[in-house]
Amino acid sequence: MGILMWILFGAIVGWLASMFMGTSEGLVLDIVLGIVGAIIGGWVMSFFGEGGVTGFNLYSFIVAVLGAIILIGIVKAIR
Questions:
Q1: Where are the alpha helices (DSSP H) in 1-79?
Q2: Helix (H) or strand (E) segment spanning residue 75
Q3: Do the beta carbons of residue 72 and residue 32 sit within 8 Å?
Q4: What is the pLDDT of residue 77?
Q5: What is the CA radius of gyration of the chain?
Q6: Looking at residue 38, what is its pLDDT?
Q7: d(CA 73, CA 54)
Q8: Most buried by CB count within 10 Å: which residue of 30, 61, 62, 64?
Q9: What is the dihedral of CA 27, 33, 18, 64, to 10 degrees?
Q10: What's the pTM?
Q11: Helix-strand-coil percent breakdown of the chain, rounded to 5?
Q12: How far is the C-alpha of 11 from the C-alpha of 38, rounded, in Å?
């Protein structure tokens, strides 16, 4: 994916994860949350023998949202 697609993907994923976890992040933090969530989700899925984010598709979307939710949970636990 190109950089613009990563930004769009990150914004959607970050916003959805924020809504699911009941947090209120800004647009920039949602983008960062979505992109880092995609990396974390890919890393977690590698432990289960599955692939990470492969493009702009439903599987990648679910993996990224899972990773973003994990990241929000870690941040909430630290705070």
A1: 3-21, 27-47, 58-78
A2: helix 58-78
A3: no
A4: 92
A5: 12
A6: 86
A7: 24
A8: 64
A9: 130
A10: 0.85
A11: 75, 0, 25
A12: 11
Integer angstrom CA distances of residue 53 from 9, 42, 44, 58, 78: 11, 6, 11, 10, 26
Give me the phi and psi of 71, to 5 degrees please. Answer: -65, -45
pLDDT band, very low/low/confident/very high, at 1 (cuts 50, 70, 90): low
Decide: 65 and 16 in contact? Cβ < 8 Å.
yes
> 29-71: per-residue pLDDT in tens?
888 888 888 889 889 888 888 877 777 788 888 888 999 999 9
